[in-house]
Amino acid sequence: RTGAHDKTKETTDCCEAISSSRSCCYGCPWPGEYAFGMLQRETGTHRLVRIWNGKRQTTFAGVEVVPLLPDDAVTSLELDPKDLQWDFFRSGGKGGQNVNKVETGVRVTHTPTGVVMKCTEERSQLLNKGKALVKLKAKLLLIQEQQKVEELQSIR
Fold first, then answer.
1. Of the residues 65, 91, 116, which one is the last residue of a structural domain?
2. Which residues make Cβ contacts (< 8 Å) with residue 39, sequence separation at least 6?
3. Phi, psi of 116, deg, nearest 5
């Protein structure tokens, strides 16, 4: 209805195998006004059913919608550097020698809350570090907003 699917520019895949299951992160900037409001109801577990060789296969996918915040909102949230744990790793995937040799992947953990964000989108560790920090701040702001809503509901 909104025509936003035609305007989606890129989808970034940063899949990583975790034990026997597979965990994938897809970043998809959704253009237009009120995009977060329209997509926030998609948060949760989705059931994907497909038919392969006459057999029905069911897969479950967890979806989390996090808003892309403007620069002023992101810079307003100050994080103590002592609360952040940085991990650097080889990203793997496409990119040849660079991703196999250089630790360009970044994982940042906010220790008080346990929120983890990782970024392997760029070929530069510095750019990935900045993107991971912005994503972490967006997630923390979203958590703060949810806590405020829960607090208001408990008062009622």
1. 65
2. 30, 65
3. -120, 135
Q: Which domain holds residue 122?
A: 69-156
Q: If we measure between CA atoms, which residue out of 130, 11, 142 comes closest to residue 64?
A: 142
Each residue's pLDDT tens digit, 79-136: 888 999 999 998 877 777 777 788 888 999 999 999 998 888 888 889 999 889 888 9
- 10 Å Cβ neighbour count for 82? 8
Give the CATH number of the domain where residue 149 resides.
3.30.160.20
Q: What is the pLDDT of residues 68-90, one digit of tens each?
A: 776 676 677 788 889 999 999 98
Scored b (16 or more CB within 10 A) or e, 15-42 reads ebeeeeeeeebeeeebeeeebeeebeee
